[in-house]
């Protein structure tokens, strides 16, 4: 069973316009593994989510299920089969 | 699906002197349109302008609303002729009684509870709805902690647009009712503001709607500059030495700074030094915590405070608020919910201004910063009151009430010792 990933509008150029894609990073995979797997199907995608030193970019939020990965284990957050992951620009909202 | 990212054909002058959107992080430029995050690095997009030479007289001859500053905003020259709430030009109150109480020489309160829906949000919505109109949106929406919900629902009603407003389901009744009454779609989401914001970010990606604080955010945020413009103009065209602003996402604080800087660059005021201070409630103080820790990154928190309009645990402009405060030599502090209530009462008792919880946060933080020696009591200081206490009655209901309840007789009045 694979992981579903919601793609924000600004990254859909990498996914032929698809708003949601699936990937199978394997058993025991983490968010980092998932991004590797996605990058093989959609080359360049990982480099948009991670900065040059391989960290999550400052203005991107990633959720595994309902959990903001910054509250979990960041890139080491497990992404088990059946999980749904959302990538969302962080610069929204507020006053 | 990609509708929102497609450049929308617009009329010449639709955005006034604005020429492009530019990423604050990497500087990549994009066409003016419904976009908010950089395609290269996810950084926030900001409006850039090519502003002609302006004079004080030109501004002073404009309408008594934010539209007197239209040349410095992404709006068409005839923006004031379109149906809208025309917010702004709120009172700058010389707060001598509060100054005396706090031991400050010169103190002002910029009272944005005087806006059409009683908060500073009418300013940002005014600019965002102009952009929505120019880009051809017929439905506008927002993620809100309440004040923005009021402002969007009301302004959409006036402008004849559909509104779809998302709020946390635990919002104060005062803010739910004052949104619902305008008749738009109001969606109560079972979660906190950050959950609402996440949901709206996903909805905005797939619906052809103009979310004022998501895909219209670059325009929306510019509206907050008008607080800075007005303060400077109302002080007789000079910058205050200190300003204290509440911090939720951090956008207001950064835009007040931008407003001051722009006025200086345009030669409309002398570019004198000023310090910007930020105010948070301890129960949601990620930016204050980062300030104290000397960190550049704001670690998200889960909010727990009565100051719900400031309860943003993952503040989008937090890093920029830190930059502004550090650059200008200010500080960011936080206060307990009890201190917030005391701040509301202090402002009401001394100046006759009933602020919502965010205003209480600002007053209480100013008091704390004075006690800590971080705010200079001899410097001209402006406190920003962003909203009206009538919307957050629950905050003070437990601690204020009738002085006495008596029988309707003169005898009872005398016995109560009220004379």
From TrEMBL, chain A:
SUPFAM superfamilies: MoaD/ThiS (SSF54285)
Superkingdom of the organism of origin: Bacteria
Pfam name, any one: ThiS
UniProt xrefs under InterPro entries: Beta-grasp_dom_sf, Mopterin_synth/thiamin_S_b, SAMP1_3, Sulfur_Carrier/Prot_Modifier, ThiS/MoaD-like
Listed name of the protein: MoaD/ThiS family protein
Natural source organism: Motilibacter deserti
From TrEMBL, chain B:
Alphabetic keyword roster: Lyase, Pyridoxal phosphate
InterPro entries assigned to the protein according to its UniProt record, in alphabetical order: Ser/Thr_Dehydratase (IPR050147), Thr_synthase-like (IPR004450), TrpB-like_PALP (IPR001926), TrpB-like_PALP_sf (IPR036052)
Cofactor(s) listed in the protein's UniProt record: pyridoxal 5'-phosphate
EC identifiers of the protein: 4.2.3.1
Residue ranges constituting the Tryptophan synthase beta chain-like PALP domain according to the UniProt record: 86-387
Entry-linked CDD domains: Thr-synth_1
Presence of keyword NADP: no
Molecular-function GO term, any one: threonine synthase activity
Family: Belongs to the threonine synthase family.
Protein name from the UniProt record: Threonine synthase
Source organism phylogeny: Bacteria, Bacillati, Actinomycetota, Actinomycetes, Motilibacterales
């Amino acid at each position: 069973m694979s992981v579903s990933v919601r793609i924000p509008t600004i990254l859909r150029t990498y996914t032929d316009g698809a708003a949601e894609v699936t990937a199978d990073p394997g058993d025991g995979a983490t968010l980092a593994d998932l991004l590797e797997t996605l990058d093989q199907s959609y080359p360049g995608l990982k480099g948009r989510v991670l900065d040059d030193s391989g960290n999550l970019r400052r203005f991107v939020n990633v959720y595994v299920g309902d959990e903001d990965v910054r509250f979990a284990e960041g890139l080491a957050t497990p992404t088990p089969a059946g999980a749904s992951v959302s990538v969302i620009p962080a610069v929204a909202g507020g006053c | 699906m990609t509708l929102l990212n497609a450049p929308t054909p617009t009329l010449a002058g639709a955005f006034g002197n604005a020429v492009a959107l530019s990423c604050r992080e990497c500087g990549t430029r994009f066409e003016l349109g419904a976009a908010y995050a950089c395609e290269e690095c996810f950084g926030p997009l900001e409006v850039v302008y090519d502003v002609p030479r302006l004079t004080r007289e030109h501004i002073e001859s404009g309408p008594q609303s934010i539209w007197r500053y239209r040349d410095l905003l992404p709006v068409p020259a005839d923006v004031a002729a379109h149906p809208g709430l025309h917010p702004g030009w709120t009172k700058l109150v010389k707060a001598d009684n509060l100054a005396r109480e706090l031991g400050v020489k010169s103190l002002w309160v910029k009272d944005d509870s005087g806006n059409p829906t009683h908060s500073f949000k009418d300013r940002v919505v005014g600019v965002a709805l102009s952009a929505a109109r120019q880009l051809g949106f017929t439905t506008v929406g927002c993620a809100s902690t309440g004040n923005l919900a009021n402002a969007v629902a009301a302004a959409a009603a006036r402008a004849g647009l559909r509104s779809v407003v998302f709020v946390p389901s635990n919002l104060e009744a005062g803010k739910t009712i004052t949104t619902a009454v305008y008749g738009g779609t109001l969606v109560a989401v079972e979660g906190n503001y950050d959950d609402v914001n996440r949901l709206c970010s996903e909805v905005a990606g797939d619906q052809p709607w103009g979310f004022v604080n998501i895909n219209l955010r670059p325009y929306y945020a510019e509206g907050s500059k008008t607080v800075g413009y007005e303060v400077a103009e109302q002080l007789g065209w000079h910058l205050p030495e200190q300003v204290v602003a509440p911090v939720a996402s951090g956008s207001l604080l950064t835009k007040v700074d931008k407003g001051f800087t722009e006025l200086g660059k345009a030669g409309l005021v002398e570019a004198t030094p000023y310090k910007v201070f930020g105010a948070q409630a301890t129960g949601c103080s990620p930016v204050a915590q980062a300030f104290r820790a000397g960190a550049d990154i704001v670690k998200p928190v889960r909010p727990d405070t009565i100051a719900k309009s400031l309860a943003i645990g993952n503040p989008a402009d937090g890093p920029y608020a830190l930059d502004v405060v550090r650059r200008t030599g200010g500080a960011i502090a936080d206060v307990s919910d009890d201190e917030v209530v005391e701040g509301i009462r202090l402002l009401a008792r001394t100046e006759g201004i009933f602020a919502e919880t965010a205003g209480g946060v600002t007053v209480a933080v100013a008091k704390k910063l004075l006690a800590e020696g971080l705010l200079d009591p001899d410097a001209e200081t402006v406190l920003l009151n962003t909203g009206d206490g009538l919307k957050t009655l629950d905050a003070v209901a437990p601690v204020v009430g009738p002085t006495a309840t008596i029988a309707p007789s003169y005898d009872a009045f005398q016995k109560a010792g009220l004379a």
